[in-house]
Amino acid sequence: SIGCNTDPSKNLKCVNASEWWSQCVACSEEAFDEDCGFWTEDLLVAAEAACSTTCSVPHPRPRPTPKPCVPATLAGCPASLSCVKKDDNWAQCVDCDPERFELECPYLWDANFIAAAEETCGRKCLGERNSQCVSIGC
Element (H or E) spanning 64, and its range? Predict the structure, then answer.
């Protein structure tokens, strides 16, 4: 995406972790603590400075493990999740709830899987919490 969502209620900042990576960081205390344990040390330091806060959870926190499902049949997910097919060899259970989708899609998935999840869930994954943003002008 080009930049972070500018809705003030989301309190997002484009944080420059290195010359190769910048991402949208939610600076509210609750969102920051939910996300910060997954970041690299460079992003954590830059985000703490940009948001004027510190991470209060253990770092690094283990990433959630994706739950695979069957690509051929789209079966195998709990009732609250949807099976999203990336290709003939990979499908994964996805939570299409708006808040979970927004949190997980830009951070855990690659571009091909994001496109499939957007179609399955009827949602768009751009410029929200933890998505990449332009590194110039952050």
Answer: none
Task: For residue 43, report the phi and psi dihedrals to the nearest 5 degrees.
Answer: -70, -40
Q: Which of 42, 21, 25, 45 is nearest to 34 (CA)?
A: 25
77 pLDDT higher than 90:
yes
- Region of 41 (left: φ > 0; alpha: ψ -120 to 50; beta: rest) is alpha
Amino acid at residue number 80: S
Tally Cβ neighbours within 10 Å of residue 76. Answer: 15
pLDDT tens digits for range 83-92: 999 999 999 9
Sorted by sequence, the CB contacts under 8 Å of residue 4 that are 6+ apart come out as: 10, 12, 13, 14, 24, 127, 128, 131, 133
Check: CB of residue 112 under 8 Å from CB of residue 122: no
